[in-house]
Amino acid sequence: MGTGAGHAGPVDQGLKDQVAAHLARYEDGVLPIVQAGHPVLRAVAAPYTGQLGDLFPALVEAMRRTMHAAPGVGLAAPQIGLGLAVAVVQDPGVADPEDADLRERHPVPFRVLVNPTYEPVGDERRAFFEGCLSVSGWQAVVARPRTVRLTAQDEHGAPVDEVLTGWPARIVQHETDHLRGELYLDHAEVRSLASNDNMMRYWGSTPDPSGAAEALGFRLP
């Protein structure tokens, strides 16, 4: 897994050494995830142009392992303290057919998104509870575009340009927002905020947030 022609910019040796030292501290490749309040989560990530050279595959692997260990379905580099526009995603999907159909949540294979951006396709928005590995222990309802156009590069520098719908679109929006210095809470219905325990206790029987909206007093799109 090389840097690819699209990531052939100059290596930043100081940054490369810093990242190498950070990765070396964690022999199992699972890195600590920074939490809300850390400045890196509120800074716009720098475009990745090849600054890490041949260390880039090691970073991607560490991000993959960290995402799986959390567990989560996406992880952006700022969440491990690195302000570069790189994210990884992977979702095994859900076994419950009703849940899968309502959220349009189907398996997403592992992939790397470098310098991703998205734009809405159409006006339809869907609202569901959403959580974040950097806001540990909490969830809130977020209304997002149902369909988006994703543009990015992959780990080799090849261009990515595709349309995503449903939960895969939500994952891409969530992770790309991280690279803009945004958290899902910036887009959430604040009155919906619930601890993980209370979300499961009161609203976990269905992914439909209508009951939560009525009980907690917020609007759905």
From TrEMBL:
<dbReference type="GO" id="GO:0046872">
    <property type="term" value="F:metal ion binding"/>
</dbReference>
<dbReference type="Pfam" id="PF01327">
    <property type="entry name" value="Pep_deformylase"/>
</dbReference>
<feature type="active site">
    <location>
        <position position="175"/>
    </location>
</feature>
<feature type="binding site">
    <location>
        <position position="132"/>
    </location>
    <ligand>
        <name>Fe cation</name>
    </ligand>
</feature>
<dbReference type="InterPro" id="IPR036821">
    <property type="entry name" value="Peptide_deformylase_sf"/>
</dbReference>
<protein>
    <recommendedName>
        <fullName>Peptide deformylase</fullName>
        <ecNumber>3.5.1.88</ecNumber>
    </recommendedName>
</protein>
<keyword id="KW-0648">Protein biosynthesis</keyword>
<comment type="similarity">
    <text>Belongs to the polypeptide deformylase family.</text>
</comment>
<feature type="binding site">
    <location>
        <position position="178"/>
    </location>
    <ligand>
        <name>Fe cation</name>
    </ligand>
</feature>
<dbReference type="GO" id="GO:0042586">
    <property type="term" value="F:peptide deformylase activity"/>
</dbReference>
<keyword id="KW-0378">Hydrolase</keyword>
<comment type="function">
    <text>Removes the formyl group from the N-terminal Met of newly synthesized proteins. Requires at least a dipeptide for an efficient rate of reaction. N-terminal L-methionine is a prerequisite for activity but the enzyme has broad specificity at other positions.</text>
</comment>
<keyword id="KW-0479">Metal-binding</keyword>
<dbReference type="InterPro" id="IPR023635">
    <property type="entry name" value="Peptide_deformylase"/>
</dbReference>
<dbReference type="GO" id="GO:0006412">
    <property type="term" value="P:translation"/>
</dbReference>
<keyword id="KW-0408">Iron</keyword>
<feature type="binding site">
    <location>
        <position position="174"/>
    </location>
    <ligand>
        <name>Fe cation</name>
    </ligand>
</feature>
